[in-house]
Amino acid sequence: MAGLDPTTPFPTGITLHRASRVLEISFEDGRSFRLPFEFLRVYSPSAEVRGHGAGQAVLQQGKRDIDIINIEPVGNYAIRPVFSDGHDSGLYSWDYLYDLGCRQEALWADYLARLAREGGSRDPAAVAAPAPQGGCGRHR
């Protein structure tokens, strides 16, 4: 993640709407975005989600019911949401949040298309637990 783009408007308000699972963010240019928690989790800027290079992004599945349990400020340029699945390593800069808001419709469509291509699901119950790895049992 690059530093704060000096052309990005500064946020004037951030509100968590827990019942609807939406983060509302308003900017000084008058734009306001309603970003669902699931959308924010799926597009976390963390290396755990995006990978360390092109083509290394990890498809996020089962995040439909995700919650944000806390938001921590990071300097005067970002926030760090703490999600109910324990994910807390994404730093969402103002420019990243503004970009997500501007491109929300296209990004969401891309995510849904990728889920369909890869046979994934937004529903936690539909995401199968990984098969246990062998090797720890006793052999007789």
Unreliable residue stretches: none
Silhouette: globular
Strand content: 15-25%
CATH architecture: 2-Layer Sandwich
Radius of gyration: 17 Å
- Spatial separation of the terminal alpha carbons: 53 Å
Class of secondary structure makeup = alpha+beta
Strand order of the largest sheet: 1-2-3
Number of helices: 4
Q: Sketch the major β-sheet.
A: 3 strands, antiparallel
- In CATH, the topology is named NE0471 N-terminal domain-like
Q: How many domains in all?
A: 1
CATH class: Alpha Beta
Average pLDDT confidence is 89
SSE ordering: EEEHHEEEHH
How would you describe the overall organization of this protein?
The protein has 140 residues and is α+β, with helices and mostly antiparallel strands. It is globular, with a radius of gyration of 17 Å. The protein has a single domain, classed as 2-Layer Sandwich (NE0471 N-terminal domain-like), CATH 3.30.2020.30. Helix content is 24%, strand content 24%. The longest helix is centred in the C-terminal third of the chain and has 15 residues. The protein contains 4 helices and 6 strands, in the order βββααβββαα. Strand 2 and strand 3 form a beta hairpin. The strands form 2 sheets. A 3-stranded antiparallel sheet has the order 1-2-3. A 3-stranded antiparallel sheet has the order 4-5-6. The mean pLDDT is 89.
